[in-house]
Amino acid sequence: MSTRSPFVGSRPFDTADEAIFHGRAREAAALAKLWRDHRVTILHGPAGVGKTSLLRAGVLPALGAGSRVLPIGRLAFLADFPLAALPDINPFTFALLASWYPEDSPTRIAGSSIRGLVRKNAGVDRHGDAIPVFAAIDQTDLLFFGTGERDGHRRRFADELVEATAARHELHLLITVRTENLDELQTLLVRSGLPVRQVTRFPLTALSPSAARQVVSGSLGDTGHPLAASAGRLVDELGAGEASIDPALLQIVCSRLWDELPPDGDDERLPKAVDRILGDHCLRSLATVATAYGEWPSALTTWFRHVFGRKPDADGVTEGRRLTRDLPNAVVRALEDVRLLVADRHAGRRRYRLPQARLRPVVRRLDAEAAVSARHERPRLDAAETAFTAGDLDLARRLASAVAREAGADRPVRGAAECLLGTIAYGQGRMERAAAHYEAAIGVFGALGDTAHVGMLLAAVGRLKIGSETTEAVSRLRAALTQLPGDTFVKTALAHALWHAGRAQAAIAILDDALSQNGATPEAIRLRGEMLADLNRAEPALRDLDRVNYGDRPSSRAAWFLAKRTCEDAGVSGAEERELVDDADDSGPVLLRVARVLRLEGDADTAAGLAERAVKARRPPLPEHLRKEAERLMAR
């Protein structure tokens, strides 16, 4: 008998698991055909139904040889990349391209669009025709968590994705999403210009009892395991008369029975064994979620037992309003992730139910005190990445801290966790804490001889110190350039630091050098345009700023207005002035540029007030060489 279990338990199947992936052959073939025949295919289903498993272990092998298939894309931000090194990137676009093109450098990815990088990596066949490119994006639900700045990132990401599909006809997209987010995803894509006729949808539901039996018997094959003789009884026991079987629970139960079923395969013991396994799964999952989210395991278990152990509503579900009143939404989503809940939408409301009715009597008997001692899963770095991407910085910090503590000898994981902690602190505005975590990561990756990570981390620390410890910023960025020689993004950051140190000509010379190496680096072009505007070199400033999308950056917009007003009679309107000042917040350079525009228009009093604010500003402060200009405006 084989000693290796053919069941994967609670994790999804991967591409290497094709040989033990059963029960989904029809769905895999149908979805592969849709992917080949359509520009955009959306695979949707509830949490835990097996979308990731079908994609990795079923659909990818079904595409066949000769297809150009990119690695599975993900939107969770990578823990080992220090966001402060390239603060202006779209995290969704960056994460997707980094997973599609893992061999490319982070700076090349950060400087590319989806359309641009697909074009650079496109190929042609022997007839000169473009080779079809099959690209998948898994778990796009991350797009729909959180608000604020993420709304802009989400819209721009959708715009880029739709632009790429329109421009690159060889690109075929497959996107997975939970059904409750399907309408929101499709609305997002259509608003970005994707024609509805180009979208096809493929629903994935739970296993039928016959497919579930095929999963069990097909996985066991000729292993000789006693569970093979009980496959039908097991499916009947787990289904308890329902028309479908939850695939995740089936894998969890079978994985445990593989280790625990007695050699005689006594069917009479099966119901009690299933009860015990499901109970253990509930307690461990509740303990894991409670530990991650700062809840008491006993309290969460009591709540779960009270809500889902009792008799359900007439249609078998519990309305989500009751859940969101009792618990944070993030905790409820986590219970979906650990296969304890499934979400449905009905009349616009999100409602929750157990994935299998067979769980209800188990839930009813859960011992809240037993959850306290239940062995919870170790924190995972990918869970911290997901929490950060979803905008839950407190949860991401707790998870990443736990990963860093428990990483032990796994130094790459510890280094990535420290890096993520630095990025989280940066997102919370705690710059000193961010620098300390990045420094800790430098120590870990430096001991591994990983110059790429060390270089990006040094660049991140250098950027964080610009304006507060400018000499140290220049030093760190020069050190980063020794680790990543020729990197245009590090050169751009070094130029920025030199600019703040009052070395304007040296800063522009470095940007000129960076752009002679790679003339399509938007950040370098934008920064040079801003510097030239401050130096009254209006025409070259406008040439630079008109080459990039300056509208979403107050500093670049203010520089453009200053350059435009310097070389011609075209100032700002009252509405534009107010918008620029509002967007400036506590930025010294933006406030000074607006002040200079208003002074050129004859409004000396308002200009003097803004110049005074510019001198006091701290995020970022004025470079030293611009303080004299501010003082001159204040004196007038």
Global geometry: elongated
Q: Which range best describes the helical content: under 10%, 10-25%, 25-40%, 40-55%, 55-70% or over 70%?
A: 55-70%
Total helical segments: 31
Give the CA-CA distance, first to last residue.
Answer: 91 Å
The CATH top-level class label of the largest domain: Alpha Beta
Q: What's the Cα radius of gyration?
A: 28 Å
Q: Could you report the average pLDDT, rounded to the nearest whole number?
A: 87
In the CATH scheme, what's the topology name of the largest domain? Answer: Rossmann fold
Count of DSSP E strands? 8
Output the strand order for the largest sheet: 2-3-4-1-5
Count of discrete domains: 4
Structural class: mainly alpha
**How is the quaternary structure best described?**
single chain
Please describe the biggest sheet, giving its number of strands, its sense, and whether it closes into a barrel: 5 strands, parallel
Q: Please give the CATH architecture of the largest domain.
A: 3-Layer(aba) Sandwich
- Poorly predicted regions are none
Instruction: Provide the β-strand percentage band.
Output: 5-15%
Domain Novel STAND NTPase: 6-346
Pfam families: nSTAND1, TPR_19
Organism: Actinoallomurus iriomotensis
Protein name: Novel STAND NTPase 1 domain-containing protein
